[in-house]
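Re: How this chain folds, sequence and tokenised backbone to follow
Notation: Tokens come from a learned vocabulary of local backbone shapes, not from coordinates.
Start of record: The labelled sequence and token lines come straight after this line.
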Amino acid sequence: MHRLSILLGGLNFALVGALALEWVDSGYPGTSYPTIALELAAAALVCALILLIKTRRAESLLGELRNSRFQLGALFEHSPICMNLKDPDGRYLMVNEAYCDWFGKPSREIVGKSGAFGWLSSQEISNDIQSMEALVVETGRVVTRQVQTVRAGKTHQRFLLKFPAINDEGKTVGLGTIAFDKTDQKAAEAALSAERDRASRLEATLREAIMAMPAGFAVFDESDRLVICNKQYAQFNPSFRNDPGLAAGLSFRQVMSETLESGMVIGVTPDQYEAFTEDRMLRHREAAGVPFQQLLGDRVCQTIESKMPHGGIIVLRQDVTEQRKLEQKHQDAEDLLRNLFDNFGHGIMIRDRDTRLVRANKAALEQIGLPADQAVGKTTSEMLMMIGMEDDAGDLTAQEIRMMDRGETDEGLIARAGPDGAQQYVLLSRFPLIGRNDEVKGLGVLRYDVTELIETQRALEAAKANLEKEVFEQTEEIRVSERRFRILAHASADWFWECDSDLRFTYLSENFPVPGGGPVSKLIGVSLREYHQLTNERPTISQTLLSMYEAREQVRDFEALRNVTGTERYYRLNAIPLFENGVFEGYAGSTTDISELYQARESLVESERLASLGSMVAGVAHEINTPVGICVTAGTTVLGAAQTLRDGIAGGSLKRSEFEAALTKISEGMTLVDSNLARAAKLISSFKSIAVDQASEAERTFHLVAYLQEIADSLSPNLKPKKVSVDISGPNDLELKSYPGAFAQIITNLVMNSMLHGFVGRDGGSIVIEVTEASGVAELRYADDGVGMEEETVKRIFDPFFTTKRGQGGSGLGMHILFNLVSKILRGNVRCKSEPDKGIEIVIRFPVVTSKS
């Protein structure tokens, strides 16, 4: 093309030359042709040069145009975005590969076809596209729209951009389409949104975790300002203690200064604040991750500061107060174990893996007769040689090493002369010392000095021969006694019985009472429940016994009122459960008629009650003797002073000083008489009230705490000689309608028991009586600080006739009377708690009955 342009230019140039010659020839006849030719040649040369330059520029522009067209064509063809171009009639002029791939058609089947070709599968979308194209043609503007289409079973989100193709004259000559598949973008946006939500939740979770941490936690940014902290960290800063969020933005220096100024840093005075602050800031900036300890308030805190990879510092402050206390306890326990080791009565040795002595206590060193500095570090063989037992050394070291290797234990008795020359017997026990990882660390040796035990054993063996002879002789006597016992048991007034696991009678002694009469065989197979019904036993008693049987409990001295032979009599029941290899097999028991014994016991109970009243009378009489004696003495003094006044007045020689002295004696004497008479009157009043209540057993209304104080006052003559104090406390307004005599008997029995049993051999003691009331139930707690009781005694304390002072003033009925008074009169219950050397505690609970109720 450009060469054709050059040819046309040359023809034009020749034509111009010819015209110029003609013009010269006609217009300038005087000018020579050579001159004109040169001028034309020069002009032609200039024109040729200009034409050549323009030609090369045109070739360059044409090349760039070709390159641009090639690049644009390649971009159009190979773009991943679907693109097409249509003519004004809506037929495809151009489509790229992405567009063809989307619809699965080659370009030859698309180009020249109608624009609806690609949307024939969805008429609704096809109509929508056609309306878009019509709008573009009509308005000449770009139109965009999002459509949803299904391809290969997958839903796609497509973004369509329709634009007009306009020529140089501004006319629309076609229609272009660009289609973006935004499915992956939407999925990515959804994933990004989900990731942002997850990050937000993670941040919230992390914040909650920081706030919930049991240790103090804080984060400072690269400018050393607080980003976040929890309440455990903020507890030592008053300004944001209740709201850690207020601390955000504070510098570490500000936080630390506030902690100092609030006095939370123990051991740092105001004049030391500056030096302490600089030292603390230096440690903070280093943030070496090394823990250090601080005393903040009353808490011991361990702090660790560490640098973050991208700048900033994390501060972790842990309250280790309890840990330090626990470490102190462990140290105390270690000290205790060390003391136990050193002062243990038997020898203890610890050897290493080479059997060299590491440590030995005093007893072990005394047994071998060597000081610690000579024994430590020596093997067993070396030690034996040092104490003159070369013959026993042998290969003992190798033997002990084998024991450790095999994890074996060994025990044996050795006999040798002790450090004092006497024969000594030592029971030697050797065992490997196992570490946490089941690794043998050494050998433990226990040395028990059994010399005294061996000598005792020999003495026992010497006595054994005589004992065997005596046992043989007595065996025959036991056989005879056993036969006699069987006969006596058969002839006994007690009734013996057995039952199986279903609580049915399997054996009954011949004299066992049968309700309604008849042989005992009539009851074989009858259940205990049926038998209780036949005896017309009270339902409460029957239910209690049956509950004990069902619970497989032992029945001991249980008393019941039954009508077996036509009259009501009192019986005592005892039964023990029988087990074989842990399996219940039944009961074996006995029943005793105690009607006469019951009547005698009731008489003894009454006698005991009157005896306690008599003891109180004797005590009160002795106590009244003192104030009455003082009154007599004071009265004598007053009479003497009055006689002196009378004689002085009669003789007319009475001086003023003598008169005043006599009046003083009379006044002091009468004061003494008045106070002691009041004391005696109080004792008599308390005694009268208590004595009448104990004797009458009448019901009346009284204030419990005040009445208990009267009882204590009446018992004071018995308490003072032993210096025993009584402290009574409780609600003063607690009023009861009950039996004061029962309370008097209960308190009297308890105090006398404390005097007889609790404070024996002691000079002084204290008794505490405490009354409380709640929900209509009163509780009376009696406690002393006496010698206490064994567990077996506590179990039997309410049994009749049980006493540990038989023959020393104890009848065994005091606590039994108390039990009956509480259960029958007060309708309550009583329990006892005691241990040796810890006193006794009696708790009585009973319903509160008032005059109103």
Remarks:
- The CA atoms of residues 516 and 566 lie 8 Å apart.
- Confidence is low (pLDDT under 50) at residues 692-696.
